[in-house]
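Technical note accompanying the year-one report. For the benefit of new consortium partners, we illustrate the data format agreed upon in the data management plan: each record pairs a sequence with a structure-token string. No post-processing was applied to the example shown here.
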Amino acid sequence: MKIGKRFAMLLLPIIVVIGGTGCMGSENKIKNHLEEKYGEKFEVEGKKEGSLLFTDYGKDKFFLYPEGKPELIFSAGEVKSKKAQFYDGYINALWGAELTQNLNDELKGVLPEDSEFKIFVTAPVDDISMRNTSIYDYIENVSKDVIVHLVIGVKSENEPNISEYSEGLFKAFEVMRNLQTKYYSLSAGFVGKNEDISDYIRTADVNNVPWSNLKGEVYGELFVDDRLELQGPEELINHYEPFKE
């Protein structure tokens, strides 16, 4: 997925399955911290092993979701420092879900039938006091220094004719632009009609798997962001990258 440096924070390293007992100490530490902070139970789905080489990111990174709500997956971990400090993306996950729900009908009205999509938010916020704040209120009254990223899976029986999709995708891009955040982007992967991409869409903000690495029939990807001054749907075509000739 072509995202550029500004959007790299959206795609964290791929989830790996937890095994053995060596990680249980750090896993329990993170879970206990989150459950005390938010007053909820959390499930750990996976982790990325810490690194001794890159000392700034030396701690294990975990991927969790509130119990019974796997769609709200986010990353959390302990900052490598002398004093224990934690970070988590739970507020961002809640804000992404808020946008996805609120804009669901509008996006469905412009995107191709059978498309799957999810909106992700990245903002420098993990303060419990922001939990009940709407993302709309945050953007309007606190800061526009927010990334909103729309990931779309477009189903197609054959190699797609991108010009047939350009108008709807441009309208979806406009929906992101109209949120008035500083950064916004759209990534659309074109896949076979029968491909199951639901888990890819669900975890797109905590993995680094590009559309081109997915197994199955994947035709190509279109990526556009705020750095492009797109004036109409016809300009989208130039940003489509086919994976097979």
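Partners are asked to follow this layout when depositing records. Strands lie at 42-48, 61-66, 74-79, 85-88, 116-122, 147-156, 183-192, 218-225, 240-242.
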